[in-house]
Amino acid sequence: MNDFIYEVPVERVSAYRGRRLIVRAHEPATLVTALADEEFERLVGLRLLSLAADSEPLNAWAPELPVDLVMADPGAEFPLLYRHAELLEHHPVRVMIPVRPGFARAVKVAVSLHFAVWLEPGQPEPALIEELAEVMAFYLRQPTVAQPVEFFHSTLLGFYHDDPAPLWVVLDADPECLRHVADEGAESLPGRLAGVEATVAADADLGEWIARVLATADECRNCEFLPSCGGYFKWPRRDYDCAGVKRLFGLLREAAAELRRDLGSAPV
Ligand code: SF4
Question: How high is the pLDDT of residue 7?
Answer without folding.
Answer: 97
